[in-house]
Amino acid sequence: MGPMIFSFLVSFTTLSLSALVTLSSSDELFYHNCGNSFKCGSIAGVGYPFHGYEEPEYCGYPGLVLACKNNIPTIRIVNVEYRVLDIDQTTKTMRIAREDMMGDVCKLDLVNTTLDNSPFEFASSYTNLNFMYGCHFSVFPNLIQIPSCNISGNEVFLLPETGFFNLGCESKITVPVEGWDMAMNLSNLGQAIQSGFKVRWKVDSEKCRDCAGSGGRCGYDFVTNRTTCYCPNPPYTAETCSTAAGALPTTAPTVPGMLLCL
């Protein structure tokens, strides 16, 4: 073997071992980085599939990111910000309400309430109310004008979704409510909207229970698109952390945007 070839092999081996050590050290951080539970206002002790806004993306399921603003927990779903009123990880449900309507139902953003059907579904019965504005008519059955309420300088009318068809209105904003219908007094409308509605997340929690039961911490792998388990000892990523400590890591957690080339 020539001296140049030998020198190349030594350099390559050194670099490979260095990369492995660096990767292993980085792997261990996944376990430590995902050890915090979310706490804000009346919400506390919330873990995977949720994660805090300041935590790495791989600590939670995509889209289940909680933020804390002025001690108020919030979550953003399809471009709408909601106040999180309650989270029950046992039933996998949470109660949310549109943040823009918590102070005044007339000050809503011009965005429909739309759930991301990938992680969410409605968890209770509800009625969709249509806040309609820019309407070109004088009288219409079952339509209620909301007093002293306007959007973009237009009067605002209320109509349940079951009775909606083209009324010649410029637009409508859909908001789900529980326990309120058109026969009730408008004075209860704000309370009904601000009480929120329940949604259920559809993320499988069995893998996370197995992971936590083995001493691991749950996270999300963006390559396999599934829940993974971060462990304090090698292998740092596994189905569970029951693998004997000291084994060489078999897989590495994949961070969004990270590409490892050897």
Automatic annotation (TrEMBL):
According to the entry, every stretch annotated as the Wall-associated receptor kinase galacturonan-binding domain falls at 34-98
The protein's matches in InterPro entries, at most eight in alphabetical order, are given as: WAK_assoc_C, WAK_GUB
Please provide, in alphabetical order, the Gene Ontology terms of the cellular component aspect for this entry.
membrane
Q: Where is the Wall-associated receptor kinase C-terminal domain?
A: 168-233
Is Glycoprotein included in the keywords of this UniProt record? yes
Q: Can you name one GO molecular function term for this protein?
A: protein serine/threonine kinase activity
Location in or out of the cell:
Membrane
Record membrane topology: Single-pass membrane protein
Query: Under which name does UniProt file this protein?
Result: non-specific serine/threonine protein kinase
Q: What is the lineage of its organism?
A: Eukaryota, Viridiplantae, Streptophyta, Embryophyta, Tracheophyta
